[in-house]
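Hello again, I could really use a second opinion on something today. I've been puzzling over a protein and I'd love to understand its fold better. I'm sending you its amino acid sequence along with the C-alpha cells. It would help a lot if you went through both lines with me. I've dropped the whole record in just underneath, so have a look.
***
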Amino acid sequence: MRLRELYRLSHREFTAYRTRSRTTVITIGILFGILLSIVIMFQGLENVALKYAEYTAENLPDESTSDGISPYEKVQNYFQINDNKFVRPASVVLLIASAFILAFTMAHLLSTSTRIFVLYYSIGASKKQLLLIYLFYLLEICVRAAIFAIIVALIIAAIATAVSWNYALKLMAANFPGTPDFQPILVGVNLKFVGIICSIFFIAPLSFLLCLDQFSYKKLAIKLKGD
C-alpha cells in the first residue's frame, strides 16, 4: 500500500474513535496551550522590559551604570534565571504527561483493534505498514493538538494583556523611573516557542514506542484466542 492509503486508513481510525481522539487532542492542547501562553507572555514581558532598559541606557546614563551593570543586562539575567527555574521544568513535566496520555490513548485503541489488525493483514498490509498506520494516527492527533494549543495560548496571552495592562505600566515605571510608557503587550515569540511546538510531535514516536509490544504476532494471537 502507498503512503496515501496508509494515511487514509489512519484517518479512518481517528474518525472511528472521534470522541476519544478529540478528547486527547483537547487535553494535550490545553496542557501545551498553558505552557505556550507562559512562554509567550514571558517573552512579551521581557521585550517590553528591554525597551525600557534600552531607553534608560541611551537617555539616562546615570541610572544605567550605577552598579556597573547595564539595565539591558539586568533584564536579560533576570528573565534567564526565571526561565531556568520555572519554564524549563514545566516543559519537561508537560512533555512527560502528554506522552503518557498519548500512550494510554494508543494502548486503549490497540486493545480494541485486534480484528482490524487481522483485516489489515488480510488486505495485504505488512507489519511495517500497520505500524505506519497507527504512527500517522498519533501524528494527526499531535497536529490538531498543536493548532489547538496555539489558539489557547494566544487567547490566554490576550486576556492577560488586557487584565494586567495598568499593573504592567506601574511595574515598569517603578523599575525604570523617568522613562516614557511603552505598550505592555504580553505577546512574544522566540525559538523556545517553536521548540515547544516541535516537542508535541516528538511525543508521538515516544508514545508509539511505549505501545510497540502490542503489534507483536504473539500478542495478536493471544488476543484472538481470548476473543
About this structure: The radius of gyration is 24 Å. Helices lie at 3-16, 18-59, 61-64, 71-111, 114-122, 127-175, 191-210, 217-226. DSSP finds eight helices and no strands in the chain. The CA atoms of residues 71 and 98 lie 39 Å apart.
